[in-house]
Amino acid sequence: GQQLNQSPQSMFIQEGEDVSMNCTSSSIFNTWLWYKQDPGEGPVLLIALYKAGELTSNGRLTAQFGITRKDSFLNISASIPSDVGIYFCAGQLYNTGKLIFGQGTTLQVKP
Amino acid sequence: GAVVSQHPSWVICKSGTSVKIECRSLDFQATTMFWYRQFPKQSLMLMATSNEGSKATYEQGVEKDKFLINHASLTLSTLTVTSAHPEDSSFYICSAREPGSNQPQHFGDGTRLSIL
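The joint structure predicted for all components is written out below.
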């Protein structure tokens, strides 16, 4: 089946540092989504990408939809302790709306 | 906008009990809702797609008689875990999409189910 490869699996950084994570796929997606999940809660949508090459920002977060439509990255600038959590990329299938998730990146920020 | 409410957030019950979980879209109508299961330190696993007014579509390996899904209105889908056993203990999460192509899924806060 379709899979997304997300890396890195985990990151432990100092507060104030920038963070970058990415996802690659063997299949093309029309929509890429980035979610954040805090412990014991559901994922929260951070950024949605709809066009190849699109670069979108949401505060300190920036994400890009790769030109080939097979990859995406998420950058977090000047990290703060509340950025801690698990970040998931997801490709959305156009016909069914189903999401194919990456394995997640666990981010820990040291104050 | 696009708020999804899931209830209850936490359930503990005895083996053999049936448990119902509700998923509501509070400020939009959702013709399609999704049900996921998540094990610790793992990604979300899609169980089924819930379509308003029709039967749910289950993913391969998910028992439809075990996990009953009803999507009776444009704002409510329910998942009933029938005759639950300890191996059904997990974190169950629903999501809903706003109408229109390419609309993203918005997730509820999940239900922690513990079967004793």
